[in-house]
Amino acid sequence: MITKKEKSDIKMKKIFKDKTYFYIFIAYIFSLLVHSIWVYQFYGYQPFMWNGQFMINTNDGYFWAEGARDLINGNHQKHDLSPIYTAPAFLTAFFYKILPFSFETIIFYMSAFLSSLVVIPIILIAKEIKRLEVGLVTALLASIAWSYYNRTLVGYYDTDMLNIVLPTFLLWSLMVALYTKKEKYLLYTGLEIIIYRAWYPQSYSLEFAFFILIMFYMGYQYYKKQDFTYTLTLLTFMMFAMMGLNGWIRLVVVLGLYFSLKKGLLKQYLYYIFWFSIIMFFLTGGFSPMWGKLKSYVFRDSIEATKDILQLHFFSTMQTVREAGKIPFEVFANRISGHSITFILSVVGYILMVRKYPIMLLGLPMIGLGFLAYNSGLRFTIYAIPILSFGIAYLIFEIANFFQHAILKKVFVITSVFLIVLPNIYHAWEYRVPTVFIKDEVKVLDDLKHVSSREDYVISWWDYGYPIRYYSDVKTLVDGGKHSGSVNFPVSYILTHEQIKAAKLARLDVEYTEKKFHLIDEGKIEKNSLELKRSNIAQMTLDYGFDNVNDFLTSLELPETKLPQKTRDIYLYLPKKMINIFPTVAKFSSIDLTSGKTITEPVFLVTRPIKKQGNIIELAYGKSRFLFDLQKATIKAGNKELPISTFIVTHYDKKLKFHKNIQNLSFYGFVVIYMESYNTFVILDQNTYQSTYVQLFMLENYNKKYYEPVLLTPFAKVYKLKI
Ligand code: MN
């Protein structure tokens, strides 16, 4: 008989003998430390802090934070777009409940703690092929490699924190499944797919790629006349886990499948069940997201045209997102491996590794997704990191084998590891991203929370939607996930057109937005109906009896516009930083909706003074130079001389009170606003000068019949609508 103590002693010995845990521990701590370099860099920097903690540095994070906050409070407002039924919000709320830290602390550090978990599946994969040391080196590199760091450092509170961890776990279970043919890995695989999908609904493409690859493997087994029963069972589990049904249903199905397997009920009907799973996958719409994606690639359109009575053409957000052109090889390689040489050696190492361990071929979908970055944006590079890190780690140990002496071998390995990791740590050291908002900006939103009600709307550009909803707990028209051309149009119009039309359109758009939610709730608008897809602006045009949207917009100038019943307050949030994106904001409403053609784009040039000679100030706008001559009231661009009608100087005094000085110089021409406190000259055309943003934020010149100032600071200004 062995006593309990002896038993546990044996167990402990086993744990220490098996270096797996130790390596995981080392790699995890290493990853945590590197992920926290940012904290060291900004330690004590007040503008980045709120409530005694650092703020997050990713915009989308405020979306999950809103959901988590509402989950913790146990309530949210109908149609406030709070993502309470999402895995990230749920996980955050869970951590908040079980941990003794503040909410701010949890959302700030979650990314570092969760993303570092990637070392576990990496080392487990290595353990499976009995190359534990290779696993350790892989984990040291993969957990902190350039783009992985960029998307998982402290404060990067977004789905990325598990977006590589989960598929790497999936990869591990698929590998071990095919390696060992043990039943429990079928269950693991099914569960991992369900969890991964719950965390990141777009995960279907990677899951599907794994599925296809394993199907090819089964074809190979068939060709070689090997027994492929296990592979077929694995595919069946995957297919059921990937159906287009609710996660809980899929969980029950996968569990049921596993128990029938355990009871030996599955084997004789395996073919039927497999085909049934395929049919279910298609019937439940499992394939439709992929079909949708393919379609969007084929019919990539820059203007969204609606198929409705009015046939409006909206500006698409895709046009403003930087065209994902060809990325230089060096950038691409750096993002994956930290250095071009490491990258090339990683590819070589991966090829060698696959020759020795063909199972590593299963990593191809992740490499493939990473290489998509070459034409669809750098954010995909993170997928290739774990697999290619395996490549370089393997190569290091292969080369080390050429050394005779054990010590030389060790020196070589340690030096190599140092060399591959170093560029990535250096990058982390240099990568000093700011927080999304600074303290003074958050202060405005926090104050706004205390004057507004949760049902009120705050209108601002979509970039600020999530943070506004998080800090002020209000509703917004647009945000980081809701910003198609048709919803952006009214907001853009409000911010970049004159005050009266802006105020009326603000009231209209808010009431139309809420009304539509209610009509849908009450079942008065049918799914897939034209009415549902119809934009607010089109609906307004029809309701007001126009058949041309431009006529409707012009009619807003008339004093007698009859507005819908006011159901709540509306605020305009105008941040200083919108100055930098004003031209982009304006693009969405500088379009003739009936034709899709751009109307003259507004002139809004943010320039900096670089030289002053007598009365002439040289202004820099990118590489262009303008000569602003105050005495002659002209501005010279190249050899063109243009008149200036108005010159305005604004500044804040020591008490942050706003002052302005307006000089009318001539009857027509451009307007120049010198914002002294920011040392910035803004050149505007007459229409843009009249726009709501310019008048309300830059000049505090508001129409008292329509607006009432609520919060006025140099960082952001908030006005309340009086209609
Ligand atoms: Mn709310």
What does this entry look like structurally?
This protein has three domains: 4-430, no CATH class; 439-576, 3-Layer(aba) Sandwich (Pyruvate Kinase, Chain: A, domain 1), CATH 3.40.1380; 603-690, Lipocalin (Beta Barrel), CATH 2.40.128. Helix 13 (204-223) crosses helix 20, helix 27 (499-521) packs across helix 29 (536-543) and helix 29 packs across helix 30 (549-555). The protein is globular and about 95 Å long. It has 723 residues and is an alpha+beta fold. The strands form five sheets. The chain has a seven-stranded mixed β-barrel with strand order 10-11-12-13-14-16-17. The chain is built from 33 helices and 19 strands. Bound molecules: manganese (II) ion. Manganese (II) ion binds next to loops.
Set out the fold topology.
Elements: H1 4-17, H2 20-35, H3 37-41, E1 49-50, E2 53-54, H4 61-73, H5 87-98, H6 103-115, H7 119-128, H8 132-142, H9 146-152, H10 160-163, H11 165-180, H12 184-199, H13 204-223, H14 229-241, H15 247-262, H16 270-283, H17 288-298, E3 303-305, E4 313-315, H18 329-337, H19 340-356, H20 364-371, H21 373-376, H22 385-400, H23 406-430, H24 439-451, E5 457-459, H25 465-472, E6 475-476, H26 485-496, H27 499-521, H28 530-533, H29 536-543, H30 549-555, E7 570-575, H31 582-587, E8 591-592, E9 597-598, E10 604-613, E11 616-621, E12 624-629, E13 634-637, E14 640-652, E15 658-664, E16 670-675, E17 680-684, H32 686-689, H33 692-698, E18 707-712, E19 716-721
Parallel strand pairs: 5-6, 5-7, 14-16
Antiparallel strand pairs: 1-2, 3-4, 7-19, 8-9, 10-11, 10-17, 11-12, 12-13, 13-14, 14-15, 16-17, 18-19
Helix pairs in contact: 2-7, 2-8, 4-5, 4-25, 7-8, 7-11, 8-22, 11-12, 12-14, 12-15, 13-14, 13-20, 14-16, 18-19, 19-22, 22-23, 26-27, 27-29, 29-30
The chain binds manganese (II) ion.
